[in-house]
Amino acid sequence: MNWANNAEAFERDIARTAEVINAADAVFVGAGAGLSTAAGFAYTGERFERYFADFHARYGFTDMYSGGFYPYATSEELWAFWSRYVMVNRYDLGANPLYVQLCKLLEGRDYFVLTTNVDHQFQLAGFDKRRLFYTQGDYGLFQCSEPCCAETFDNEAQVRAMCEQQRDLRIPSELIPRCPHCDREMTMNLRADNKFVQDEGWYAAQARYADFVRRHAGMRAVYLELGVGYNTPVIIKYPFWRAVLENSRATYVCANYGEAVAPREIEGRSICINADLAKTIDALSAALGR
After folding, report:
1. Other CB atoms within 10 Å distance of the CB of residue 209
2. I want to staple 43 with a disulfide (CB 3.0 to 4.6 A). Which of 64, 187, 269, 274 is the partner?
3. CB within 8 A of 98, min separation 6: which ones?
């Protein structure tokens, strides 16, 4: 492998990306799980063992994601896991430097963020929440498990109480969260099946994004895709490809280590950066003078 050529290609792609962003009327940011992974929020390995070694020892799963789908025998055990999961991935986190850097990179630009991430990092980093569309939910929200209503409920106080009072990997039964309307047990507001609640706030964000798309139709646009894989490509990746195909003034930028690709139909207006996202955002910030 010619590492010198790889370095040259990276520098060239960063320079091209900075050029199209500076010339753009709008920047569409599509952010996937790879962005939070690059920020250090791993759900496996050392970070999992640091927070969930006791769950690993008792139940055998080896990553946080699997823990969310484990068939716990009781709701008390289920919520012991989920309350700790939410604490370490939502409430115990401050603004991550990588997200802050991305926010500064976009400062003063007309942008909108479409994301499948649910860890609230964009708002913690200072992004304008009216320019954010969280399509898959939020760790900070509960919903009715039925659901009996199109409402979500802030969960911080309940989550903190469950974490503080859990013993032997169980929470007290009286802390099991229940819907205030029907008294059914609540669940996380995360898209897993057709019971996911799209509440008033979800539809308002969707409408703002649709309006942003409408207002910038045919204009110089950059579709900046960061860490988006193929788990749910219909949410960000495929719509970005289609938008660039339909707008000859648009550029697609795919930054994703190991999965930086573009379809043949738009490859002439695509920049694929196959490098670590933290390195990419750092280099792009420098190129943009941020």
Report:
1. 18
2. 64
3. 35, 38, 39, 40, 277, 278, 281
Q: What confidence tier does 5 reach under pLDDT thresholds 50, 70, 90?
A: low
0.85 exceeded by the pTM? Answer: yes
| pLDDT tens digits, 171-230 | 999 999 999 999 999 999 999 999 999 999 999 999 999 999 999 999 999 999 999 999
Burial class (CB in 10 A: 0-12, 13-18, 19+), 164: exposed
pLDDT score of 49 more than 60:
yes
Examine residue 147 and say whether the peptide bond preceding it is cis (omega within 30 degrees of 0). yes
d(CA 51, CA 63): 10
